[in-house]
Protein 1
Amino acid sequence: MPLNDYTRDQLITEARKLTEAFRRFQDANLKLDLTRGKPSTAQLDLSNGMGPLLLEQCFLEDGTDLRNYGGLNGIPAARKLGATMLGLHANEVIAADNASLTLMYLYILWAYHFGPLGAGTAWRDEGDVKFIAIVPGYDRHFSVCEEIGIEMVTAPFAEDGPDMDVVEELVSKDSSIKGIWCVPKYSNPTGHVYSSEVVDRLAVLGRMAGPNFRVIWDNAYGTHDLHPEQAPALANIMERCRHYGTEDFVVQIASTSKITVAGGGISFLGGSKPNLDTFRKRLAIMTIGPNKLNQQRHVNFLKDFGGLQAHMRRHAEILRPKFAMVQQRLEDGLGGKELATWSNPQGGYFVAVDVMPGLAAKIISMAGEAGVKLTPAGATFPYRRDPEDCNIRIAPSFPPVEELELAMQVFVNCVELTSVQQRLKEIGG
């Protein structure tokens, strides 16, 4: 029954019952963590076979010694693997070290100071610099902009990805907007998959934007399907860019961070030749080459994209019960009460919950008091300011199913209790 249909006496009774349950959770001294989308121990164990492969092949066919310096682009087989993940050609990809976040940070930093295409294109020379942030979104994207001094303007999601009417209006009216953050498949935290129409409109965006505009295509979860046989397809943005002649306006990012060993994977940056040439020029000053042994180890382990897909099916087997558990607990505890809405993603690492306006921070605080850590309120918005104070990100991947179920019981209790308390205040109870 919707909360608004409760009588005052029913609300008081419900508040009393929920408070008693909350105190029992407090007394249990729980220490549960749903803050970050980390692979679980069981997922990491899937890659244990990589260890013996480290020194299996130290020389490439052309005689390159992987133990030595050099190879700024990454080894050919790793570039090919990254290309299949991003829908590019191998010569359009740089294979780097473990963190795609590092590549994104470097790209934005260097574009700001030196220009995405070198001399005369530096963003900072044009005055104010802004980026579009699709909200709710990935907190670390926002941190990159905040660190460098790039102002963020927001655009909401529609059903099939970013609200492109809003995005296009922003870009067409403000030439200081130099980019947009995109997580196109299983967006963090909502789980959106961009439709073909949205991808098409993003591909043409560079035509209506000011100079040196970039779509940052962070496809972090592109292979992370919960149901691989029924996985939604994502249109190839570079193919669409080639159609419109906008290849220079998109930079693509991916990694194996949640595929093999978090913190020990390989990352990929893909784009047009002018984009890569400019990026390599800066990269050559920073490093003499990536960890080629680790790249070869990944190739030895995953073999090719088919091997990667088989590996990801094993990940899915571990993650499916966890995501199903979250959906079941949310439906059982909150369904039909009009207290919250939530996403039901078919992949990725997160579930987004929208509670009644003004309650997210309180719910997160209460959950912490009961021993369940959640991502801080506002984290999914630029500058950590959620204008409605309603969005909460749940990360089901890391805890075992049993701990996750308990954490969701606490979470649902906190949502119900704060909502009932709020309703009592509204009616003067």
Protein 2
Amino acid sequence: MSESYFPRWREVTPAEGAVVAPDERLSWPHTGVMGVQHVIAMFDATVLAPILMGFDPNIAILMSGIGTLIFFLITGGRVPSYLGSSFAFIGVVIAATAYAGKGPNANIGVALGGIVACGVVYVVIGAIVQAIGTGWIERFMPPVVTGAVVAVIGLNLAGIPIKNMAASNFDAWMQVVTFVSVGLVAVLTRGMLQRLLILVGLLVASVIYAVLPNGMCLRKPLDLSGIANAAWVGMPSFTAPVFDTNAMLLIAPVAIILVAENLGHLKAVTAMTGRNLDPYMGRAFIGDGVATIVSGGVGGTGVTTYAENIGVMAVTKIYSTAVFMVAALIAILLGFSPKFGAVIQAIPLPVMGGVSIVVFGLIAVAGAKIWVDNKVDFSQNKNLIVAAITLILGTGDFTLKFGGFALGGIGTATFGAILLYALLNRGQRSTR
């Protein structure tokens, strides 16, 4: 009998530390608990990304759940991954919309059109991979390239919290309090509390901000009226995309970055599960691309597979795709709570700035980790030059203009890394 499209999860009761495979599951109550844990793991980053772009966090949470279900359906439930808001879009969205960093983004429609275009490009890449295999992707994007591109995302965004999210000296000190709080949680706590270092650190810093005296006008009073007035259940505010050519040309190349992220995540899950997921790579790209199109079509951010959730899998050794189906359903329920969105909007801006410093730094370090994990040899001039130039192009926001179109730092660094590696690699071969 032929294998069914979706896995027929076999219920298991594993010994402590034993692996639960993608086509296995715990009891449904335990699966539900694990689903909650995965929602919590993705929560802080998925919420932070839309805030930094002026998007509605409720929509982002809702679309992360819907996107994960789309991914589940297209991959046949074979790939354990959660889709959340991608940070790769932040720089290009801010550039395309001229977003000032506070409140709703007035030009969100233009950004959404670019996100939809990015999703279309992503689907096309996935279709090509599905048709001819993964070898060409790995040749064009070896670890030295993917590591540099991921690192550049964090480095390019570094100026946002430092320049735009600290209006006063007090705000700057609150950023220090925030990232120190996150650091202490990361080092001094254990278990699930440690896994939630961003969320817990944010809560601690918010409490400190709230209790500090305002008699000397050091801070803005917290406005909690929005929380009190928000309904517990309600429809999110959907927004339609506007298809502006310049914005689409600026944002669409992010698909290359999403490919790099997804490729890295699939390789990581393959290593952890011992299951070869390469046959599902094309479908994974298509699933992520379709999810990005659907999200951008209603007002959500572009989505990507989440390293946070891969980390949870690594710790728990539970790789059941049933867990991610449950997590997606929980996220969808949260998306229909305006009260939840109001709580997010009430977080003080300097606290969000401090969290952003941590998150963007972690993204940069994740790029370096790709180099370390793959033992990239920087004694080879080819690798050294590609990494060096890519980092500076992205960090310095090097911009190239083609007529009325401008390719910003992340896009320039991404395409520069791919093309430069191809050129130097070919040159190296020709000298042998």
